[in-house]
Amino acid sequence: MVPFSHENMMTVACSSRENGKNTRAFCQVGCIGCGLCVKQSETFVVEDNLARVDYAKYEPSGQNEAAYNKCPTGVVVYRGKSAPEPREPKARQPAADKA
After folding, report:
1. HSE, side-chain direction, 13 A CA sphere, residue 61
2. What pLDDT is attached to residue 63?
3. Could you give the 3-state DSSP secondary structure of residue 63?
4. Number of structural domains the chain divides into
5. What value does the CA radius of gyration of the chain take, rounded to a whole number of Å?
C-alpha cells in the first residue's frame, strides 16, 4: 500500500496482466496495456500488459492529467478524500467494415 503524499492521487484501478484483446473480452474498463499514459507522463510505466504509477515520481501535473484524459478505458482514476467519481469508459469504436 502506498501512503498518500497528496490529498488526491491517481492510480490504475486494475490488476489484470492479460493482453489487451483478452482483457477487452471480459472487461470493458480493464487496463489494456496500450501505453498511452506512458507517452503523456514519465510517472506511468507499463509492465506485463499493465500500466502502473511510479509513486516515487508522482506529483500533480499537466502531464499526469493528460495521461488521465487519454486512457481509453478510464482505468486511471483518482483516489482520495475529495477525489472525483470514476469516469465512464469511452465508447469502443466499431471496427471498420472491410471492403
Report:
1. 11
2. 95
3. helix
4. 1
5. 14
Per-residue pLDDT of the chain (99 residues; tens, 9 = 90+): 566 677 788 999 999 999 999 999 988 889 999 999 999 999 999 999 999 999 889 988 999 999 999 999 999 999 888 777 777 766 555 555 544
Residue 2 lies in a domain: no
Cell match 499514459: residue? 37
Q: Which cell numbers in the block locate residue 63?
A: 502531464
In which element (H, E) is residue 39 found?
A: helix 36-40
Neighbour-count burial of 97, counting CB atoms closer than 10 A to its CB (0-12 exposed, 13-18 middle, 19+ buried):
exposed
Given the C-alpha cell 486511471, which residue does it identify? 76
Closest CA to 29 of 63, 90, 75, 64: 75
Does 3 map to a domain?
no
Q: Is residue 88 part of a domain?
A: no
**In a 10 Å sphere around its CB, with 0-12 CB exposed, 13-18 middle and 19+ buried, how is residue 64 labelled?**
buried
